[in-house]
Amino acid sequence: MTDQRTARGVSDRMAGAISQVAAAGALIVVFVVLSIVAPSFLTADNLFNLGSQTSVNAVMAVGVTLVIITGGIDLSVGSVAALSGVIGVMLMAEYGFDPTLAIIGGILVGAVAGLVNGLLVSVVGLPPFIATLGMLSVARGLVLIATGAVAVFGAPDSFRLLGQGVIGGFPIPVLLIVLVAVGGYVVLTRTKLGRYSYVMGSNMEAARLSGVPVRSYTTAVYVLSGALAGLGGMIAASRINSGQPNFGEGLELDVIAAVVIGGASLFGGRGTVLGSLIGAFLVAVIRNGAVQLNIGTFYQNVLIGVIIWIAVWWDRYQRRKLSGDTG
Amino acid sequence: MRKPLAIGLLLTLTITAGCGVEVRRPTGGGAPGENVRLAVVPKAIGFDFWEQVRVGAECAASKHPEVTMHWDGVTSEDDVSGQQSLLQDLLAQGVDGLVYAATDAQALSNVSSTAVEQGTTVVNIDSGTTPQPKNVPVYATDNVAAAERGTDLLARQLGGKGKVAFVEFQPGTSTNDTRGEGFERGLAKHPGLKLVARQSSESDYNTALQVTQDILTANPDLDGIYAGNEPSMLGAAEAVRQAGKAGKIKIVGWDTAEGQIDALREGVVSGLIAQNPFAMGYQGVQATVDKIRGRGEQRATDTGATIITKDNLDDPDVRKLLNPSCADPPR
User: Fold this and answer.
1) B7, B206, B215 member nearest A240 (Cβ)
2) Which CATH architecture best describes the domain A26-33+41-319?
3) Which of B23, B99, B247, B258 has its CA 20 to 30 A from that of B110?
4) What is the pLDDT of residues A228-280, one digit of tens each?
5) Which are the contacts of A25, defined by CB distance < 8 A and separation ≥ 6?
6) Domain with CATH 3.40.50.2300 in chain B
7) pTM
8) B274-287 burial string, b = 16+ CB within 10 Å, else e?
9) Hey, is the C-beta of B72 within 8 angstroms of any chain A C-beta?
């Protein structure tokens, strides 16, 4: 029994590594092609833009990776990001909060939404899809109630630093990607929360029976996802120095796409921070390059959809091959 | 204090609506003095533009004490099926008049004709349907003509030549495409203008910022931008501002949200194409009431567009247009 499970763990890890390599390979290919066909692609300015543009999705993808590893899903991240963004900006514009406090406030709003998701899943027992689908709607509704559906302006100029600032030549949003990625990596590989997440995602019942406090860890994962959605929302708000009530509609799909392209399995038990980051960058590079080549949005969407198919097909193909080899 | 009150009110309204058990008459309200129930449905609730439509609609409704007006809409302008359901629900509730802006010209044509068949008075504002039922008038901006005038302004500001980009918002929708058509007609008149990029913002401020950044990267010598709506222009302006090219790149575009007017004063934006949303709301409701009462003739009307630059921004007529009120309505 133990041997079998270890074998499965090893093959899972190998399959994960393979999908990561595939995604990284795709990223490199797209990168090289774009550098050749779009002369402005490989310029410092564009890489600067690209990094900043990816930050929102990348930060959120790290949170969603955790959730997906446990076998869950978080459909609410786009709405939650919008809620954090508008409330964060309102804290500054209407209640005179200092930007730092307002950013923390926005992240806390996201964490609270994540806590509700987590409790709905772990205590009430709703399927994650339903719990977070409900939150997608609830958070969007709260955004519209709080703002009257009108954008919130009036944050101080210093708030722009979060999404537009530079430290030592690096855009702050890019440094935030690094920070969140390192944090996510440490959580996943060096903490009980991370290791139990893989265990829960591989076999929830087995995890419960072997004494893993499933409820609290599940809740914690959704809280982290919510908080990172909150951070993503604050970065997006800072990039345009305003809170937009319609921000993030459909964003959850881009984020989940990034995580899946990066090799995470929607059935749980598998996924890495690095893979999801590669996925987020792949989606962003394609969009960035397509605009530079003046390819229309419709074609960009088709392209990204096709890449999702290929990524998941590759994933399943490799898994089948591996289980065939080892089993 | 305002917000808890608003939430309380909302809850009360919801509960009241939920508990409403009065028997609804399918038609009626024709005779003077009888209560007339109108529903006004914008493409989406929120956005400055639709709020101004609402001010106009409520203004017209307030002139008729026996008219009650219900304002409702979906939250996203591309939620076509959501709007369709909402309109069907309102018709099922038996409103006497329906004033709405179609999120999709073809999909909603049936809703209009069904409504007319069952005796409901229908008026379109901002966007009509294809086909447009004969007895459903449209009160809207002539987008093609106004876009052409906007393009003329951009051409003038660029001295008749230069590279330009078009940040559109929802390719495939009639508003987007008619604004594109007018722009293309304008370009044809000014052969010195060269269109180097056409990208969609998906009506999202962040996306508009990103695509404009990428357009600027690919075309460092860009001279002008034509933006199809509010988020497209705000994002384009922000990208130009962040690139340190404010004022060097001319931006002309649609709508007049607060952020756009600030950008015009600041000099990042050089021209706004202003519609008259107040007039759409006002005339739409007025026409519906008249029609139910059997007064006058209602026909499709261009509610007009005004080109706003720094020079006329503080004219009294422009101020009235930008901050419409029922007490002092814009012309």
Assistant:
1) B206
2) Orthogonal Bundle (1.10)
3) B23
4) 999 999 999 999 999 998 899 889 999 999 999 998 988 999 999 999 999 99
5) none
6) 29-141+276-303, 143-275
7) 0.79
8) bbbbbbbbbbbbbb
9) no
